[in-house]
Structure prediction request, 184 residues.
Amino acid sequence: MSNAAPPRPLTAPAAPDGTRRPRVTGRAPARPAPGAALHGISAATAVLLGLVGIGAVLHEPVLIPPLAASAALVHNAPTLPLAQPRSVVVGHLLGAVAGYAALTVAGGGAWVAALAAGLTMALTTVARTPHAAGCATAVVIVLQAPQPLRFVPLLLGSTILLVLTGCAASRVRRGAPRYPAYWW
Prediction:
């Protein structure tokens, strides 16, 4: 049983002259229940703090902005295709491949970073692993040129940790959507 209102039509009622205009107002999703919002925010924050702690122990920056975006997807939109383990892990790895390839071929810079993000989008589309944060990973790589032998294993471990915490968090709260909706 859903408490959502029935969908509104995409067009406004007919004008006096009989024409229809597109509805200007949006159809935003319903506000989550306070408990659900607190649960998602707490879980995402906890895993991000965990990444910072791991980075402090390793003396390496483990938390990068794209991982924060991934945590938000996994913990607050766990049923979306973008949030599924396949998309989170493979999406970031394809972003790393595209980022390092672009960096190798064309060097650093904003133009190359934009191309790397586009390449990542193409790769994730072909691989059926949509994950917008993977595009951001490619940008980070091109603009900051981290050492691949250190960066890629940390990235892989971080994405796996995000997925595992998503699984655990979805089982802690009663009534929470099960994560993942699918593994592969």
